Amino acid sequence: MPEKYEWRQKEKELYIPKRKPVIIDVTEFSFITVRSTGSPANPITRSNTV
Description:
By secondary structure, this protein is an all-alpha fold. It has one domain. The chain has helices spanning 7-10, 12-15, 43-46. The chain is built from three helices and no strands. The chain is elongated, with a radius of gyration of 17 Å.
């Protein structure tokens, strides 16, 4: 299993709030979206995930 990505430690300039507002350059990120309904703990609704 791959090691957990510690985004708060590796991307501090993006995720940790500053005392004063600043402009930052955010690089492009890839992401996925999972759509579903109901509770993820319920096996019936888990099977309906898109």
